[in-house]
Amino acid sequence: MKWVEVDQGDDPRLLPYHRLSDPNFRREYESRNGTLIAEGLLVLEILVGARRPICSVLCSVQAAPRVAEALAGLERDFTVMVAEEKILQEVVGFPFHRGVVALAERWAQPSLEELAAASLCGQKAVLLVLEALVDHVNVGAAFRNAAALGASGVLLDPRCADPLYRRSLRVSMGRALTVPFRRAQSWPGELEQLAENGFAVVAMTTDASATPLSELSIESDRLAIAIGSEGGGLSGAVSDLAGRTGHMARIPMHGGVDSLNAATAAAIALHTLIPGPR
Known about the structure:
The protein has 278 residues and is α/β, with parallel strands linked by helices. The protein has helices at residues 23-33, 41-49, 64-71, 85-92, 112-117, 136-149, 166-171, 189-196, 236-245, 262-273; strands at residues 2-5, 35-39, 54-60, 79-83, 100-105, 125-130, 153-156, 181-183, 200-204, 211-212, 222-227, 248-250. It folds into two domains: 2-105, CATH 3.30.1330.30; 112-273, Alpha/beta knot (3-Layer(aba) Sandwich), CATH 3.40.1280. The protein is built from ten helices and twelve strands. The strands form two sheets. A seven-stranded parallel β-sheet has the order 8-7-6-11-9-12-10. A five-stranded mixed β-sheet has the order 1-4-3-5-2.
């Protein structure tokens, strides 16, 4: 790899790093170029460990030694640009304290069949299904929970926020780089396909008539745990699909609270339904 010093914010090599806090601009730019932005040393280390192709790296003078350690041994040919913090702030568009950002290539998503065949927990295939989670923080937290609690993959409906958007990646602690995921092309068609192929669909709901999560009895060893938006919950189509198989579940709560943050609900459902590590 090549290390260079950059002392001008308008250096054309920095163009991919401009306006990082503008989600509309980044969505269009990254979609058109097939790239993603990884922010922070931890996410960079996971990017390296996951063997995702890196295009370039931008870091502060202070962070350069740690970045060099993280990149040690990589053979891919790319440029590491080093700049003072004031240049970094000018480029990215906000006070930047994490020291490093990297530009990497996106990769092809798995087919539904490939996602269904994945197994990270070693005992059963459990997919976390996210519907209409438009907040990047919630999506990132859901991926972190999926990785920590043994989900084998994540299926997103077409409306969900991008798991590989900079903020999602940061909140996921880089785990959106390692957990297999797919954005459904038809909805709820792909969830129906999972059900037809032996997945028990568990729909998380606040409906008082639903079965308490800890009392759920599921015979299948293949689960699809569906979490809806915090405002509207799951759509009627997904609830109906789960209702036909008898897997509507709720998390009983104290104090008159009627719902939880979507990522928190996902964590409780995954922890309850997936055997923990031994």
